[in-house]
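Issue: ligand-bound run for S-adenosylmethionine - logging full I/O for the record.

Environment: standard queue, default settings, no custom constraints.

Inputs:
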Amino acid sequence: MQQKEIKNFVRKRYGKIAMEAISCCRSTSTDKALNLRYTEEDLKRVPENSNMGLGCGNPVALASLKEGETVLDLGSGGGIDAFLAAKRVGSQGKVIGVDMTEEMVKKAKETAAKHGYGNVEFKLGDIEGLPIEDNSIDIIISNCVINLAPDKERVFQEAYRVLKPGGRIMISDIVTEGELSEEVKQSLEAWAGCVAGALEKDQYLALIKRVGFRNVAIVSERTSGNCCLIAKIASVQVQGFKP
Ligand SMILES: C[S@@+](CC[C@H](N)C(=O)[O-])C[C@H]1O[C@@H](n2cnc3c(N)ncnc32)[C@H](O)[C@@H]1O
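Outputs:
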């Protein structure tokens, strides 16, 4: 499959989801089991329509955000994690969400305006070529997005570029344990459903280290017990630091 073809399919799928507010990554029982859920408290703190049920973790819960920090959310979707982060960093801090799907960015911007979030900005952009300055971000969060990107090494290189020295990542994503079947890997549907693009866990961690991150570790993990595929899929929350 061509990278362009994958991206167009993914963009179309998430554009439709934004318009119809239907869920994709959470639509099967396996995915539900993998979803490290938001707490009731989290959900009370954010605008209701920002939670589209598309994540596979809760990166903000583990990110140890501090007041005044600048946060970048890769693939911000409806904005749930950006809005949660905005509460933590306060009015002296800032959250930037980047997403390549126009409908998602429009929706998140409307929600921010409607609910008066002055410290959140949503930008249209590709996480393989971030519209963000070098060395300008304290922490990058992301929730179930990097598996959708065809060039994951490029995504991590970009993450490294925009982080300040000493900056960190806290990423929730889907990885595999064992290799997916060729049939699954070639399915655009499975790609957009956060499965076909998932890397093997060790390969995923190795990529993050290869671009320069240090102290790379999985801080939380859930593996699916029942999977129709050759490989198991797992949702992981991964941290790393830019020296
Ligand atoms: C599964 S959804 C997750 C949305 C959000 N993080 C959440 O947890 O609700 C994936 C999102 O990533 C975006 N996305 C996928 N590939 C991307 C890329 N290469 N660059 C920017 N955004 C991307 C999609 O448009 C979609 O909004």
